[in-house]
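Example 9 (inverse folding). The structure is encoded as follows.
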């Protein structure tokens, strides 16, 4: 789990998450005013693994960039 709290995580590249655990889900979370900031350009989130959910992003997302999902794993944005 990556808990940003009230901080800002600036994504300048891509994210890869692989989860084979059915009892734990990797999570990126934040509490206001924390957020995931996208730099300009397209960013790929690749999710793989045996678990139904490979990455859960609950942090607010903002910025000039875009997101593309790749891989057969599950990704949840809430």
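The amino acid assigned to each position is listed next.
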């Amino acid at each position: 789990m990556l808990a940003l709290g009230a901080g800002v995580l600036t994504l300048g590249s891509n994210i890869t998450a692989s989860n084979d655990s059915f009892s734990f889900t990797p999570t990126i979370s934040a509490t206001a005013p924390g957020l995931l900031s996208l730099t300009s350009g397209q960013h790929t989130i690749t999710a793989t693994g045996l678990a139904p959910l490979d990455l859960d992003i609950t942090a607010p997302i903002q910025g000039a960039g875009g997101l593309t999902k790749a891989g057969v794993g599950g990704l949840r944005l809430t």
